[in-house]
What we know:
Elements: H1 2-17, H2 24-35, E1 40-44, E2 75-79, H3 87-95
Parallel strand pairs: 1-2
Amino acid sequence: MKKKSFLIGLVLLLCLSLIPVLPAEKTAQAEEQVINKNFMVYYRAWRDKEMKGVNTSLPDENWLRMTDIPYGINIVNVFSYVPPGQEKLAEPFFKN
Length: 96
């Protein structure tokens, strides 16, 4: 009887050891999907700190710079329009 109980316990233990605790393949796939995602934003150049008074009549100062775009954003679509006669005001933005 002891031998039979021991064998049944051993078989159960072996069967349980075959069940994976964490499915490693799914975890690797999920991590790969996160790494390969793209995050895109659009950026209004005329609201950049270097563009003072270009293409705007808003009274508040521009406080954001291109370098302030957070880590993780890997595509930036820059919208820029410099009206005729305001090229000198926009020069600092395009030099950086």
